[in-house]
Inverse folding.
């Protein structure tokens, strides 16, 4: 059976991306990163539920504490406030330097170990928060670099099935495909009830509103 390494943050996008891999008949190898983010414990809890729902054959929980040492992001440096004033232009302070590049590199090593054919990542370009490492052009270049830097018989395709979708489309597709949205987390700063005012909460809530359905999460 063909295999796919699925990067799953615990959020809605990555949960849907992994569900698509399952529907496309891939054996799921679920991968999660603990990198000192504010909602690390909640995201890990959600990842475990999602991986169980997907019947993942293997799960990896990778600790990357150096992101906290680097700081430079509101997600990993508590001296930087998480913005709550609405979506802003440009790259926000919640951007973690080269995070997806590092995640993809580690995922590629795991994919090569398991002779996996694909790597799924839930990046969303059009409706994202302006992160430079969530673009289709960047991911395609990473795929090229990964295949140049691995064994000759290794040929990994990085799949980003949501990259051109709006958040409302992601909500609709998640419901249609049976993604357990109640087990996903999007909030950048709270782990009990979602704050409802950070960029990620705003995008999620707007997506549910435009899709005409109610978000199952509780909000402060």
């Amino acid at each position: 059976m063909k295999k796919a390494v699925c990067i799953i943050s615990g959020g809605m996008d990555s949960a849907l991306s992994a569900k698509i891999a399952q529907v496309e008949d891939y054996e799921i190898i679920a991968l999660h990163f603990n990198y000192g983010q504010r909602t690390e414990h909640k995201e890990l809890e959600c990842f475990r539920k999602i991986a169980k729902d997907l019947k993942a054959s293997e799960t990896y929980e990778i600790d990357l504490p150096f992101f906290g040492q680097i700081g430079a992001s509101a997600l990993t440096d508590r001296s930087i406030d998480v913005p709550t004033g609405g979506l802003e232009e440009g790259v926000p302070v919640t951007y973690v330097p080269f995070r997806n590049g590092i995640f993809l590199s580690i995922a590629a090593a795991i994919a090569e170990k398991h002779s996996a054919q694909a790597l799924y990542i839930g990046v969303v370009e059009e409706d994202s928060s302006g992160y430079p490492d969530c673009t289709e052009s960047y991911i395609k270049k990473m795929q090229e670099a990964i295949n140049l830097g691995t064994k000759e018989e290794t040929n990994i395709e990085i799949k980003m099935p949501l990259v051109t979708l709006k958040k409302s489309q992601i909500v609709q597709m998640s419901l249609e495909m049976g993604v357990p949205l109640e087990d996903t987390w999007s909030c950048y700063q709270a782990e009990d009830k979602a704050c409802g005012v950070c960029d990620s909460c705003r995008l999620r809530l707007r997506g549910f509103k435009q899709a005409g359905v109610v978000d199952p999460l509780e909000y402060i």
Summary: Residues 99-113 form the longest helix (15 residues). The longest strand covers residues 27-34. Strands lie at 3-7, 27-34, 58-63, 118-120, 157-159.
